[in-house]
Design a protein that fits this description.
single chain; alpha/beta; Aspartate Aminotransferase, domain 1; Aspartate Aminotransferase, domain 2; 2 domains; seven-stranded mixed beta sheet; 17 strands; 16% strand; globular; disordered N terminus
């Protein structure tokens, strides 16, 4: 795809895409569940895979499978070219300064742990403050808890104002003045809130605070420009962007990566090894010990190509339109409690009904072929703050349709009648 064509697809609007036709690219959407057509509304947990991604992974294993880098033979050369080509594709997708700023991981969780156990462990000291938000996924909370306990650092939190899911930023500059590092989510996986990460990172940079952005819920749904956001680190997972499981990305500002110690020891991350000491490779290879997930990188490359062919602006508008439709219908139910912003939410909605437990709703919806998520969504502290143990969550993607939203609402009403 030439640069002009790519730019054109990124700018496409929701109305210019035949969303129903795209469903044909996803074999799993032809499945039936309990005798009903599958309505898959659990995209915030993991997205489905188009045949373009499935075919790319199969082609790699059928024609190019070998270990990468140091090999001399043709298959190793092909595998290396595919792996490093995927790295360049990710750099383009995120508008990174160079592919050397892209580290392949197993997913968002490993990316966050990598930063915590390299940059943060090396630079933070006893008494330093790590600033998070109250809406963080456990993957962006537990690593910092472990680090804080290990070195004697402190955790501070930007508050969530309530059911509307907004961050209270009135005290942000005061909090940043006490912090050394800020790590926050771009889009909340429970509230659907789209946080103003560029504004927050700009204020953090002015205060000399290093920033980490969790883009797990945004990278496959919206334009994510690391230079525009001006963050120091950003991480996302392939399996939420139509790519394979077990592959993810950590972007890091090059000067920070070069100064960071390795994350793990082993093959590939070294230049020279003796019995008593070693010389480490340069970034990004310094952080990719062992045989990498080459097939995962190949699949991720195909997934990013696929998303940009549709256009991320159009995808985000489509997701928002479906979430708005769902919220409007849900709001008609007496006593329902809907979490997240009334306007500008991403493509998901979490809710609680007074007369039915979230797990019961999801279980019974599954009997009708509707796949929802129920539970704490790896957001236990946030739900405790909101006074609920669990919510039911419907999360949408570009292959979902208005008819599926209506089917979800129809099934929900049918299930609810059993509890009232």
């Amino acid at each position: 795809m030439n640069p002009r064509a790519k730019t054109a697809t990124l700018a496409r609007s929701d109305e210019s895409v035949d969303w129903t036709a795209l469903r044909d690219d996803f074999p799993i959407l032809r499945e039936t569940v309990n005798g009903h057509p599958l309505v898959y509304l659990d995209n915030a947990a993991s997205s489905q895979k188009p045949h373009q991604v499935i075919d790319a992974v199969r082609r790699y294993y059928e024609h190019d499978n070998a270990n990468v880098h140091r090999g001399i033979h043709e298959l190793s050369n092909r595998a290396t070219e595919a792996y490093e080509g995927a790295r360049q594709r990710v750099a383009d997708y995120l508008n990174a300064g160079s592919r050397e700023e892209i580290i392949f991981t197993r997913g968002t969780t490993e990316g966050l742990n990598l930063v915590a156990n390299t940059w943060a462990l090396d630079k933070l000291r006893q008494g330093d403050t790590i600033l998070l938000t109250e809406m963080e996924h456990h993957s962006n909370l537990v690593p910092w808890q472990i680090l804080a306990n290990r070195i004697g650092a402190k955790l501070d939190f930007i508050e969530v104002t309530g059911d509307d899911g907004q961050l209270d930023l009135q005290w942000l500059d005061e909090q940043l003045a006490r912090a050394r590092l800020l790590s926050l989510t771009h889009i909340s996986n429970t509230m659907g809130t789209v946080n103003p990460v560029a504004e927050i990172c700009a204020r953090a940079r002015a205060a000399g605070v290093v920033t980490v952005v969790d883009a797990a819920q945004s990278a496959g749904h919206a334009l994510v420009d690391v230079q525009g956001i001006d963050c120091d680190f950003l991480t996302f997972s392939g399996h939420k962007t139509c790519g394979p499981t077990g592959i993810g990305v950590l972007y890091g500002r090059r000067e920070l990566l070069e100064a960071m110690p390795p994350y793990q020891g082993g093959g590939e991350m070294i230049l020279k090894v003796g019995y008593r000491d070693s010389t480490f490779n340069v970034a990004p290879h310094k952080f990719e010990a062992g045989t990498p997930n080459v097939a995962g990188a190949v699949g991720l490359h195909a997934a990013l190509d696929y998303l940009d062919t549709i256009g991320r602006k159009a995808i985000f508008e489509h997701d928002q339109r479906l979430a708005k439709r769902a919220c409007e219908h849900l709001a008609e139910i007496d006593g329902i409690r809907i979490f997240g912003p009334a306007e500008g939410r991403s493509g998901l909605v979490s809710f609680v009904l007074p007369d039915a437990h979230a797990l019961d709703l999801a279980t019974m919806a599954d009997q009708k072929g509707v796949a929802l998520r129920a539970g704490h969504h790896c957001n236990q502290p946030l739900l405790a703050k909101l006074g609920v143990a669990a919510t039911t969550r419907a999360s949408f993607y570009f292959y979902n349709t208005e008819a599926e939203v209506d089917r979800f609402i129809e099934v929900l009403h049918g299930v609810r009648k059993l509890f009232v």
